[in-house]
Amino acid sequence: MNGKQGRAGYCSPVALLAAAWLLAGCSDTPDEPAAPGQAEYVKYCATCHARDGSGRPPTFPPLAGSEWLALGPEASALIVLLGLKGEIEVAGRTYNGYMPSMRQVSDAELAAILGFVGDRWAGWSAPPDAERMGRLRALTEGRPMLEGRAELDALLEELAP
Question: What CA–CA distance (Å, rounded) separates 152 from 92?
Fold first, then answer.
């Protein structure tokens, strides 16, 4: 085998791999469109709670299968707005994490995120709306971070109509 044959034998598969890599994103079918609120969820939540809602044990709990979502969208909004620290139990597993306040998320983004979470993992009867998120934001202004489930339950009771 001379140098040219060896090189041609090497370059051909490399060229094929490069062409395949370049064409890998091409398809006759378009990508599935994102669900409403999915882009916001991915931007703000997926790093910790994962794109599929499975969480990142032992620090970040799952949303999929979480009994906390049964508390409703307002409880979830309070956690997002105020943050949550301390030991909690989710789906039979103990987590001792820290979720910072996400007050930088706009009311519309928060409603979109919770709408996505509700559709995917909670089955809430009605998606939250930005106006209600704004009222919750105003009611929680200046409040400290939540520590555990007991503080969340107490706040929900306090804010109940």
Answer: 19
Contact 119, 64 (CB under 8 A): no
At residue 145, what are phi and psi to the nearest 5 degrees? -60, 145
Amino acid identity, position 110: L
Using CA atoms, how far residue 138 sits from 40, 56, 106, 131, 134, in Å, is 22, 31, 12, 11, 6
Can you tell me the distance from the alpha carbon of 94 to that of 112, in angstroms, rounded to the nearest whole number?
A: 28
pTM of the predicted protein model: 0.79
Closest by CA to 53, choosing from 66, 40, 43, is 66
Backbone torsions φ then ψ of 95, nearest 5 degrees: -125, 140
> 60-100, pLDDT tens digit by residue?
999 999 999 999 999 999 999 999 999 999 999 999 989 99
d(CA 84, CA 97): 8
Cβ within 8 Å of residue 99, ≥6 positions away: 48, 60, 79, 83, 84, 85
CB 41 within 8 A of CB 116: yes
Pairwise CA distance, residues 64 & 122, whole Å: 8
